[in-house]
Amino acid sequence: MSANRRPLISGNWKMNHNHLEAIQTVQKLAYAIEKDDYEAVDVSVHPPFTDLRSVQTVLQADQIPISLGAQNAHEAERGAFTGEVSAPMLAKLNVAYVIVGHSERRELFGESDADVNVKARAVLAAGMTPIVCVGETLDGRSTGHAEARITEQLTGSLAGLKADAVGDLVIAYEPIWAIGTGETATPVDAQQMCAHVRARIDAMFGAAAAASVRIQYGGSVKPGNAPELMAQPDIDGALVGGASLDANEFARIVKYRLYQV
Ligand code: PEP
Q1: What is the pTM of this model?
Q2: Is the CB of 218 under 6 A from ligand 1?
């Protein structure tokens, strides 16, 4: 990882932890993550919508330097969209990062690159940072189309964004076959794909955006593999699913640099 890009370790809780469990988890994290860790690494947690207010209150009251994150946002500011939550509503809760285009949203809820694009724009317009997810399927990888698929997703998801906005983004490269499966891309494969993401950002938005955009790797990141993944030059952080549900396990990932290879 580059010295100029602060690492970001994000915990995506998905549809886990009610608001009481969420409070407990954040309190445990506050105990396990120390001042030195926050000096070196940015940390975000992404609870379900129903937990956001409770987690925000704990973070604020106890002055815990963990950023609050969300898992999705609707592109409209308000209106007749039953069941949806808008970006300005999240911003009002001090949400800093919003995941857009997670593969589960793409695969289970049919979100297209165009959908991800309007969501990313809405998140930026509300003053938050999108974490834009891209990743290929196992089929895409085994047929040699992984890079082409990532290029296509980046082109559609980031279309029309300004270069300086892209430089401040987070992009999560998450091979779908590695999410929740226990399979991890090897550090060499993950690095190769993250380098490809950076090269595409360079081609689309210029060298300055490519140098500053933060690229996370996601897919079965655990305390044991985090140090080697984080040692790769184009990997600036991790988007962690399963292992983020347990405060101690997530804290060990945040502390990856203590075990750096
Ligand atoms: C994710 O949900 O973004 C993810 C990477 O999950 P897991 O760490 O469980 O593979």
Answers
A1: 0.96
A2: yes
Cα–Cα dist 156/111, whole Å: 12
Q: Active-site residue 17, yes or no?
A: no
Residue 196 designated active-site: no
The domains of the chain, with CATH numbers, are 8-259 (3.20.20.70)
- Tell whether ligand 1 has an atom less than 6 A from the beta carbon of residue 241: yes
Which atom, in ligand 1's list, is nearest to the CA of 174? 5
Per-residue confidence of the chain (261 residues) as pLDDT tens digits? 554 899 999 999 999 999 999 999 999 999 999 999 999 999 999 999 999 999 999 999 999 999 999 999 999 999 999 999 999 999 999 999 999 999 999 999 999 999 999 999 999 999 999 999 999 998 888 898 999 999 999 999 999 999 999 999 999 999 998 888 888 889 999 999 999 999 999 999 999 999 999 999 999 999 999 999 999 999 999 999 999 999 999 999 999 999 876
Q: Which DSSP string corresponds to the chain?
A: --TTS--EEEEE--S---HHHHHHHHHHHHHHS-HHHHHH-EEEEE--GGGHHHHHHHHHHTT--PEEEES--BSSSSSS-TT--BHHHHHHTTEEEEEES-HHHHHHH---HHHHHHHHHHHHHTT-EEEEEE---HHHHHTT-HHHHHHHHHHHHTTT--HHHHHT-EEEE--GGGSSSS----HHHHHHHHHHHHHHHHHHH-HHHHHH-EEEEESS--TTTHHHHHTSTT--EEEESGGGSSHHHHHHHHTGGGG--
